[in-house]
């Protein structure tokens, strides 16, 4: 499938726990647009590498694996379903360990290059909301509206703690906070596509904003951009 640059794209970038996943899914639903969870691609890649016994620093093997990965998102933003080789891995890829593995493979330039076109292929009518770290800077630099969501590391750790508790998978708050800080550091300091806002992104600090308020702000800004 070819990507079509006349199709509108909205990018939502930011660190994990900033609320970008929830917000961008809600925005995609409101607009009736497709949804790309680009982090899931890196998470699935880390999982597939583990299954095949490929080390998370074997750049050439990982890039080859990334290029041929059979990954599908049957829910298109309406849930967490992700298929790897036709098998449901939606739950498995959203663990702390899978996130740490994703962050490692995501630091490798050849891996990012192998996934670039695959991400652009999600740009299909009537439009796309793309969630990640480099959606506005690298993957869709010509996006129609760009957002960068942030929140303090402590608030993001609290959200993650609550989320894990709801799933019955408790972890100590201090460990979650340390993990978030380590991941932020790795994502922001890597040489390729580091986590940073695009120059033309609207930055929204969600530390003290709830989800509906953030969604409304994003939607209002998109309406302004698409119909100025
Ligand atoms: O959004 P997430 O937590 O599912 O992302 C998992 C990891 O993948 C994260 O540590 C950084 C990496 N990632 C990336 O480098 N580029 C993206 N566009 C999305 C995720």
Write structural notes for this entry:
The protein is an alpha/beta fold and 228 residues long. The longest helix has 17 residues, at 173-189. Helix content is 49%, strand content 13%. It has a single domain (9-222), classed as Rossmann fold. The protein contains nine helices and eight strands. Strand 4 (83-84) and strand 5 form a beta hairpin. The chain has a five-stranded parallel beta sheet with strand order 2-6-1-7-8. It has helices spanning 20-31, 38-52, 59-68, 96-105, 109-120, 135-139, 153-166, 173-189, 211-226, and strands at residues 9-13, 34-37, 71-72, 83-84, 87-88, 128-132, 145-150, 202-205.
Question: Low-confidence stretches at least 5 residues in length (pLDDT < 50)?
Answer: none
What's the average pLDDT? 92
Our count of helices gives 9
Structural class: alpha/beta
Short description:
The chain has 228 residues and is of the alpha/beta class.
Indicate the topology.
Elements: E1 9-13, H1 20-31, E2 34-37, H2 38-52, H3 59-68, E3 71-72, E4 83-84, E5 87-88, H4 96-105, H5 109-120, E6 128-132, H6 135-139, E7 145-150, H7 153-166, H8 173-189, E8 202-205, H9 211-226
Parallel strand pairs: 1-6, 1-7, 2-6, 7-8
Antiparallel strand pairs: 3-4, 4-5
Helix pairs in contact: 1-9, 2-4, 3-5, 4-8, 7-8
Bound molecules: 2'-deoxycytidine-5'-monophosphate.
């Amino acid at each position: 499938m070819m990507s079509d640059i006349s199709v509108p794209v909205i990018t939502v970038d930011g660190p994990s726990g900033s609320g970008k996943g929830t917000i961008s899914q809600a925005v995609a639903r409101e607009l009736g647009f497709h949804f790309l969870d680009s982090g899931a691609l890196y998470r699935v890649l880390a999982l597939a590498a583990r299954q095949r016994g490929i080390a998370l620093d074997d750049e050439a093997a990982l890039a080859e694996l990334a290029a041929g990965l059979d990954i599908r998102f049957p829910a298109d933003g309406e849930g967490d379903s992700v298929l790897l080789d036709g098998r449901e891995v939606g739950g498995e890829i959203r663990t702390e360990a899978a996130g740490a593995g994703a962050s490692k493979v995501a630091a490798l330039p050849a891996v990012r290059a192998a996934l670039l076109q695959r991400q652009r292929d999600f740009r299909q009518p009537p439009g796309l909301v793309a969630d990640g770290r480099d959606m506005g800077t690298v993957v869709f630099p010509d996006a129609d509206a760009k957002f960068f969501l942030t929140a303090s590391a402590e608030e993001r750790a609290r959200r993650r703690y609550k989320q894990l508790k709801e799933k019955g998978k408790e972890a100590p708050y201090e460990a979650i906070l340390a993990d978030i800080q380590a991941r932020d550091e790795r994502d922001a300091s890597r040489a390729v596509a580091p986590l940073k806002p695009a120059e033309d992104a609207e930055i929204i600090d969600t530390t003290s904003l709830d989800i509906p308020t953030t969604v409304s702000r994003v939607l209002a800004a998109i309406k302004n951009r698409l119909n100025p």
